[in-house]
Amino acid sequence: MNRPKTYTIAAILQLLFSAYGVVASIPFLAQGATVFNQTAAGPPYIVIVIGTLAGAMGVISAYGVWRNQKWGIILTLILSVINGLSALPGILLAPTVGVKLLAAMGVVLAIIISALLLWPKPNLAPASDQRQ
């Protein structure tokens, strides 16, 4: 398989970021909507569910990028934009410094993944077909 190194790095980052999102949301999903909305001061339960689904889609998109599939690259770009934009308000509005740092890290990671996927591919054409 002839995959650019930038795609390999982007796929690994997307997989780690998405898998972390899914695993971190499991305790919140286990609480259920009623308990979570009554006791938590965080986002509504539906946001947790959507984030978990986006994380699962991110794992799938990372596989597509790893296999150098066009659908995986497009899906990863879409998810990176959504993740970056959804984390952006947390930089200013998060309640604690730790959450603000996590939000900033999410924005930076989304930018890095997008940049890696949009980086120009090296031209690997052979130079032996030159005529004099």
Binned strand content = under 5%
The average pLDDT score comes to: 86
* Largest sheet features: none
Helices and strands, in order, run as HHHHH
Low-confidence runs (pLDDT<50, min 5 residues)? none
What is the count of helical runs?
5
* Number of strand segments: 0
**Intertermini distance:** 34 Å
* Rough outline: elongated
Rg computed from alpha carbons, rounded to a whole number of angstroms: 18 Å
From the helix content, strand content and strand pairing, which structural class follows? mainly alpha
Percentage of residues in helical conformation: over 70%
Number of domains: 1
Index terms:
132 residues, mainly alpha, 5 helices, 77% helix, 0% strand, elongated
Question: Can you tell me about this structure?
Answer:
By secondary structure, the chain is an all-alpha fold. The chain has one domain. It contains five helices and no strands. The protein is elongated. The chain starts with a helix and ends in a 14-residue tail after the last helix.
